[in-house]
Amino acid sequence: MRQPAKVFTDLLVWQKAHRSVLEVYAYTRGFPRHERSGLAGQFRRAAVSVPANIAEGFRRRGKADKARFYNIAQGSLEECRYYLILAHDLGYGETHELMSLLSEVSRLLDSFTRTLLTPDS
Question: Where is the signal peptide (predicted)?
């Protein structure tokens, strides 16, 4: 059985979300210059919001308060998925691997949140 996380960086969901931020930064480096402050900036901010909210929620005391931050992370993750769809449709590069990573983070975050909200957890 896995040891309980002592710090947010112990969480697999945070680790994968952080990796997705690094991948988003790498991906958006290839955007056209005119998108650097537009779509690239919004995409990066949404991506950073996912692990940041997981980290912030980790130390919150009540389940409802924790769940609120994890829900914000989920919303930011969906925002990232949209930006990835838009980037693909604009022809800014291949998106399959990054979309797969975002889907994995989404599944982990959903599972993590469900476990938190389960009675007796």
Answer: none
What pTM was estimated for this model as a whole? 0.92
Distance CA 96, CA 100 (A): 6
CA distances (Å), origin 5, targets 70, 113, 115: 16, 15, 14
3-42 tens-digit pLDDT? 788 999 999 999 999 999 999 999 999 999 999 889 999 9
Q: What gap in Å lies between CA 96 and CA 120, rounded to an integer?
A: 38
Helix intervals (H) in the chain? 12-28, 39-58, 63-89, 96-117
- CATH classification (class only), 9-117: mainly alpha
3-class DSSP assignment, residue 13: helix
Tell me the angle at which helices 12-28 and 96-117 cross, rounded to the nearest 10 degrees. 150
